[in-house]
Amino acid sequence: MAQVLIRAGVVLWIAHVALVLLTWYLSPHDDASIPSREANPREPKRAQSATNRVQIAPEIARTSGEDEHVNDLSAYSSVLNALRSLPALRAANRGRYAIRTRRLVLGGEQRNVEEPQAKTPGLVVVGLDGTIEYAGSEDGLDEYGISAGSLAAVVDVGDLVVMPGLVDPHVHINEASDPDRTSWEGFASATKAAAAGGTTTILDMPLNCIPSTVSMSALRAKVEAMALSKLFVDVGLIGGVIPSNEDELVDLVERGGVLAFKSFMIDSQSADFPHVNLETLSRSMQVIGARFGTSIPYMLHAELAPEEAEGDKNSTQARRALVSESSYSEFMRSRPDAWEVDAVMAALDRAHRTGCHVHICHLSSVHAARLVRFARGLGANVTAETCTQYLLYSAEQIPDGRPEFKCAPPIRQEQNRRELWKLLIEGDAIQLIASDHSPTLPKYKNLDSGNVRDAWGGISGLQHRLLGVWTAATELGNVLSLEALSALLSEQPAAIFGLDGMKGRLAHGYDADLVIWDPEGKTLVTESNFYARHKVSPMLNSVLRGRVLATLVHGELSYVAWEDLEPQQQENSNLVSPGQLLVRTDDSGVLGKVSRLAPSSHLLRLKSESMSPAPPSQCKNENAM
């Protein structure tokens, strides 16, 4: 009887959701006004001059003669030189040091330090172990038993913003055992790009590397590649769920230490990573929910084409053939937002029945976002992300023949963009902003031919997430405070993926992961300051609002802006590479809180255990992301 009642309740819930969606579709939505950040009295007000804003809409920003000197660092030289002394200080083991600032964003419920409210500057004290000993107003230092005389150095960055290092849970690093796919992007280049953008923690997706991370042997190949590479930021791994690997899922967490799982609900265009049908999705959620409850998020590429749900691949190919090669608008219409709505609804239904924590990746449809908000209001254990490109660009801006803008789901219309922003600020539908960094070789982006239809569907956005979001928020009328920005890019991603207590805030005992940046500055994106392996991005040659000046990981200087003027250092940086591997298992192999390990240490443990053979790889060059 109880099962009958539960099933009846699920049916009624789905019917109610459908009615809500239908009502919304039929109602007018001409007013996409975005609430001002000034409506929240807790958020500090910083006036921005309209003449200083970087105009992204209605046309895509490109450089002009007046932008030639945007990247001049002379105004920051004293701060950069002081920061550059930190590696020597740390190498000499001279003790704790501090960063002083008038604009300190702490995260959480802590009171930020920002003029004119603050009578004294903010201070972050970094211990020898790479964790934070104190963060807050300088006059509160004594309460923690820290005397000013015990500090080996104090670097004063003036009015530059110091806030928690960013956490990006959606990054595709293509390095494993296949050298051809590694040429798309590797751990050294990706983590350096992350550091240059203020990101200090990334989670690596199970594709597009070869082999995909869907088995213990494939995971070992990835960890081995990490052990041989420089890591400029911390990296956690995500396991893949495909139709044939349900028996691997528990081991991938308990022995492999993955922090989450990922599936596609639509063809990923990668034979090495087939999508799951709805039956497999249900079984996988049952395994994950039964074993791990809500502690391991199940990330979904949530698009569900009618023919995919029915297993009809011929319809997929026929529909694709109807899209002209260079038309962006036709490509966008070929992946309608109804696909996102259908996929999210199917995922929510199955999550409700299994108790699994579902995380919806790269939401681009405001309709799907509203569905997530509705489900969360009913208590559903679902979280969602959107991405920089959906907040910064709109379809009306993108000319035909510009495949660098191609991603999936696609960038949609301006009205959709503004309503996404509104939901983002309200906070119930979208909890974080990720990059969905999905690079490839330039030849697969079809830049010369302008063939959008057949181009690789992914954007290289890891480095420019902070500045891209800040640019869009500024253009829309300063709709994000620094506090809200940090929550979306740092604190909330850390909490969702089990990193709270380590990442996402500046507080005692947290990792000393910091970004130091100037929100009033500008950055001209050029090949010389673009650290991803291949310099292909819609942001290339654009001016973005803000300037990242330094990034610290575990208190070590992982990036300083002087490197932008010395391109040879991008491959042979004299800075340390302090990144480590984040795993769900401790040294004894027991599932618990996330811990940090050297990749080589985790590799030794993996090699000591019996491994199943890695699955054969047949990955092809297409639109997986």
Automatic annotation (TrEMBL):
Region of interest: Disordered: 33-53
Pfam families: Amidohydro_1
Keyword field: Hydrolase, Membrane, Metal-binding, Transmembrane, Transmembrane helix, Zinc
Endpoints of the signal sequence: none
Keyword Transmembrane helix annotated: yes
UniProt enzyme class: hydrolase
Amidohydrolase-related domain ranges (all copies): 161-555
Similarity-based family: Belongs to the metallo-dependent hydrolases superfamily. Allantoinase family. Belongs to the metallo-dependent hydrolases superfamily. Hydantoinase/dihydropyrimidinase family.
Name of the protein this chain belongs to: allantoinase
